[in-house]
Amino acid sequence: MTGPLYRLGGFCSRHHWPVIGLWIAAVIAIAGVANVVGEKTSDNLTLPGTGSTNAQNLLSDHLPTQANGTNPVVLKAETGKITDSKNKQAVEDTVKSLRKVDVVQRAVSPFSDAAKGAISKDKQIAYISVALTENQGDLTDEEAETVVDAEQPARDAGLKVATGGYLGQAVSKADTESSEAIGLAAAVVILMFAFGTVTAMILPIVTAVLGLVASLAIIKLLGHVIEVPSVAPTLATMIGLGVGIDYALFIVTRHKLQLKDGMEMRESIARAAATAGGAVVFAGITVVIALVSLVFSGIPFVGNMGYSAAVAVLIAVTAAVTLLPALLGALGEHIHSLRVQLGRTHPDDHEPHGWARWARGVVNRPWRSLVASVGILIVLSLPVLDLQLGASDNGELPKSTTARQAFDLMSEGFGPGSNGPLLIGVELGSPAKPDQSQLKQVNQKQDQLNQQIAEQEQQLETQGVPEAQAQQQVQQQTASQSQQLAQQKKLAESPATDPRLTDLENAIKKDPGIRSVSPATVDKKGTVAVFTAVMTTAPSDPDTIDTVNRLRDTVVPNAIKGKDMTVFAGGQTAGYIDLAARIADKLPQMILIVVGLSFIVLMCAFRSLLVPLKAAVANLLSVGAAYGVVTFVFQEGHGATLIGLDGAVPIASYVPLLMFAILFGLSMDYEVFLMTQIQEHYKEEGDAHKAVVDGLANTGRVITSAALIMVCVFSSFVLNGNAVVKEFGIGLAVAIAIDATIVRCLAVPAIMALMGDRAWWLPKWLDRVLPPISIEGGDYFDRRDAQRRQEPEPAVSG
Q1: Average pLDDT of span 112-120
Q2: Which of 131, 176, 567, 708 is the most buried (most CB within 10 A)?
Q3: Which CA distances in Å does 390 have to 170, 422, 492?
């Protein structure tokens, strides 16, 4: 890898303007195409074999109009009641407007017979049930906006209107621009301090921003090929900015050090691209491996998010080894221009003696350092023992979003469970038939009413009332009874009254976690039915998980025992519960896969068994501490209000899994840069303890600067209104801070000091089997420089 990177860096630095122009043209072209085709994201929770997916498939095949569920368009009367004539007319006009939208399959007025219970008891709030032709995974932002625009008649009438469900989520995405700006501003200050010149500071910023624009455009295009989750672009922004700036920081730092040692400008750029650039490529590949390995989870939602984040890392690596050398070549000697001194001394004017003193202190007292660092990590990790994977809901969004407003209005008018109803899909072994006993009772009541009518007519006729007049008078008196009986007969003749279905509905209705159950809807063949169960608790409430599990494990099996029917609990709420269960099952396996792959890669790179083992243990402790902090802040709610939340919120089930892959990959960056320096010094001097001191002294400042940049970038996303993004921001920022300080500057040097020469032991037979990998290519340049010294000097002509 060293030779090609050296030649690539030299080529880009010599032909800097064409390379820079090509990069700018490519970014503009990709971004332009992406803007034309538009963004398409999907939060499809399909998980083969789970109850929610089975319910979705069953309804899609037999009751497609019910498969996608409904989205409530919630309306509240600011004055009077929603049933007042003016407000009622506005609601009906809105229903007509919604029905004209192509993507709207059905819009049910709250005043219709089909919308029983769609008006609150105080008559202040009502909702229009809107069913779409597109499911959550296929609905585009443009289609969602068209539906929301159709709600204008209600707004014009002065009604408060809010859109819920996945329709509301599609138009309630939080803006990330402020987070990006704050993260970049912090990076500017840190880079200014690290480099001491404005010109050098600009390089990582330009590289990272151009790479990020390209990454987001590619992810936008990727959304038309695979299902890219809605949070994926934000996650890619966090990672792309962080690694983009960090990778450039490492290469520019190496370049400046080489120039300080008197190396020629072009040679320095090429060597920096080959040495530090080699470490960047190696670290980037490690991150990509960790992210792409998420595909082994068998969860499409998680795997696709891993792919999206990996795109940002790949582009950042590409920019670091091509665009950055070109920028360095264009800048030339001006890299030393516009010096800025932040502090007593300039970064170019002194050696990192402070880091050397720190390293000697750790190495001289390794047990004390190790015990202190491990103790801190264990204390931070303790809350993870209570970690519970849950599901986020619209109640966690900012109050300014329509989805959050709809959530609050539905909770106010119909209870919190109305925001996440269950779709109970039923497959019957034999077609549903009307309940004959119920039909018989209705017929008996009809006979009794007919007899009563005849007696009243006869009585009136005996009183001298003409027959026609008597019939008309009796019909008017019994009209309501007749209408009621007609409705009862219609219901009794429906296959929805099949005792198997009604028994199931009654059993579910009796569960303490269920607020109400709607009548069943049966397909034309009578073999598939669906009804809606509204719970007493919000979708994200832990009690909701208990209710769903109780229905699946006890209530439903008891109700259908021996009745030749299969039941699945579906809907978005059930989908998130199934996702959490699947992730909890797969998390140990994914940890083993990522750790195993990283162990093999590091073993090949450092030719050691103990170094990758140490890295795996240290990184696991770092990730555990990050999990503990996330649990403490979000699940337990300590300080949640300080980051813009109303209180404790559940940890989204996929956050820990993605955090692990990202953090394990990113922490390997610092592992590679530190251990490469320690290994290089060990090979030169053969003194294990001195190698640790020199390695940490040479890398401490750049690693902490890089980590500080990442911490600032990640933590800036706490300003994002999405609770899941906040969880990623806090988790990643804390983990990087822990890894770059407690782990990399305390635990790792202490362990290396304790292992001594044994750290670099590798069985000879294994050394022969493993492929040789040189991260920074020291051997390559040693051979190259030796060959140059052996070449005879050209003869001087007289």
Answers
A1: 83
A2: 567
A3: 21, 16, 41
Residue 64: phi, psi to the nearest 5? -60, -30
The secondary structure of the chain in percent helix, strand, coil, rounded to multiples of 5, reads 70, 5, 25
* Strand-pair category, 422-428 with 528-535: antiparallel
User: Is the predicted pLDDT of residue 796 greater than 90, yes or no?
Assistant: no
Residue whose entry in the numeric block shows the structure tokens 């259908």? 560
The three-class DSSP label of residue 179 is helix
CA angle 773, 779, 780 (to 5 degrees): 90
Which is nearest to 393 in space by CA: 609, 614, 577? 577
pLDDT at 660 over 80: yes
> Domain containing 216: what range?
2-37+174-395+577-782
Are 556 and 567 in contact by the 8 Å Cβ rule? The answer is yes
Q: Which helix (H) or strand (E) holds 346?
A: none
Angle value at C-alpha 557, between 551 and 559, nearest 5 degrees:
90
pLDDT single digits (tens) 12-61: 999 999 999 999 999 999 999 998 887 777 777 778 888 888 888 888 88
| Tokens matching residue 115 | 């919308």
Strand pairing report for 651-652 and 389-390? parallel
**DSSP string for residues in 125-164:** EEEEEEEESS-TTT--HHHHHHHHHTTHHHHHTT-EEEE-
Whole-angstrom distance, CA of residue 649 vs CA of residue 721: 13
Q: What is the mean pLDDT of residues 553-568?
A: 91
79 and 126 co-located in one domain: yes
Cα distance between residue 52 and residue 136, in whole Å? 14
Q: Could you tell me if residue 793 is left (phi over 0), alpha (psi between -120 and 50 degrees) or otherwise beta? A: beta
Handedness of CA 90, 94, 96, 100 (dihedral sign): positive
**What b-and-e string marks burial along 682-709, b requiring 16 or more CB atoms within 10 Å of the CB?**
beeeeebbbbbbbbbbbbbbbbbbbbbb
Q: For residue 553, give the H/E element and its range.
A: none
Report the first-to-last Cα separation within the chain, whole angstroms: 43
To the nearest 10 degrees (0 to 180), the angle between helices 748-755 and 366-381 is 140
**Which CATH number is 104's domain given?**
3.30.70
Return the pLDDT at 450: 75
E strand or H helix that includes residue 744? none
Q: How far is residue 479's CA from residue 464's CA, in Å, rounded to a whole number?
A: 23
Rounded Cα distance between 779 and 649, Å, is: 53
Q: What is the largest distance, in Å, between two alpha-carbon atoms of the chain?
A: 150
Which residues, including other chains, have CB under 8 Å from residue 257's CB and lie 6 or more apart? Answer: none
pLDDT band at 281 (very low <50, low <70, confident <90, very high): confident
Tokens of 683: 């090979």
- Asked if residue 769 and residue 695 are part of one domain, the reply reads yes
User: How many domains in the chain?
Assistant: 3
- Pair 18, 80 in one domain: no
Cα of 199 vs its chain's centroid, Å: 36
Q: What is the CATH number of the domain that holds 266?
A: 1.20.1640.10
| 370-412 pLDDT per residue, tens | 999 999 999 999 998 888 888 778 888 888 889 889 999 999 9
Distance of CA 179 to the CA centre of its chain: 17
CA contacts within 13 A on the Cβ side of 221: 13
Distance CA 570, CA 566 (A): 13
